[in-house]
Design goal:
With about 210 residues, the protein is an all-alpha fold. It contains 12 helices and no strands.
């Protein structure tokens, strides 16, 4: 029995190592193949559940990712990376209200680190929470160099009809990182709404 346990441990570690290596190389299909074999053999191993969830999320399979990470969190409920995956998967699955509990727990465990705080703001915004924009503003005050927060603020401003404020927020985001396609696309939408159609076309082109 001891020899079998060692053999299983070696096989598990080898499978995880290979899947993570393929994932880091961007070979998502090969990573998924290894993960499928692992989840079939070790369905209750938290690292396998976490890896399977991460791969499913990157493949756009948010519902599957949520199932895997729920199993992983049942085994280690305060595992910070798993809580973040759970939040991201719920957001990707169109369930921001369900994203908020794991993200708030991640905030508590991490001392309100930037990533969980940002994702919690996104969940609040998508849920329509009354304090969402104010919370996002506080996050930007804390981390003014974090471009994704400016993009979220711009989208909230655009939806609220504050087009000039939205444009200013997007300009700030692009000044921080000019390669964010979403920021260029959102900027095109705002410029188009302002009637600046030639500039909007240029922004849309930059998003491609």
């Amino acid at each position: 029995e001891a020899a079998l346990a060692v053999e299983l441990t070696i096989a598990l570690e080898a499978g995880l190592t290979a899947a993570i290596a393929y994932l880091n190389q961007g070979n998502i299909d090969a990573a998924a193949s290894y993960a499928a074999a692992l989840i079939g053999r070790y369905p209750a191993h938290p690292a396998v559940c976490q890896l399977s969830a991460q791969i499913a999320l990157q493949r756009g399979e948010a519902t599957l990712a949520r199932r895997h990470i729920a199993q992983g969190l049942s085994l280690r409920p305060d595992h910070l990376p798993s809580l973040l995956i759970a939040g991201r998967a719920a957001l990707a699955d169109g369930a921001p209200a369900e994203a908020l509990p794991p993200l708030l727990r991640a905030c508590a465990l991490s001392g309100n680190a930037l990533e969980p705080s940002y994702l919690a703001c996104v969940a609040r915004l998508q849920s329509g929470a009354a304090d969402a924009v104010a919370e996002l503003g506080l996050l930007i005050q804390r981390a003014p160099g974090f471009a994704p927060a400016w993009i979220e603020l711009a989208e909230a401003m655009r939806k609220g009809g504050e087009l000039q404020a939205a444009l200013a927020a997007l300009d700030r985001a692009l000044a921080l990182d000019g390669n964010i396609a979403r920021a260029h696309f959102q900027r095109g939408k705002v410029l188009h709404a302002l009637g600046r159609k030639a500039e909007a076309a240029g922004a849309f082109a930059s998003a491609v």
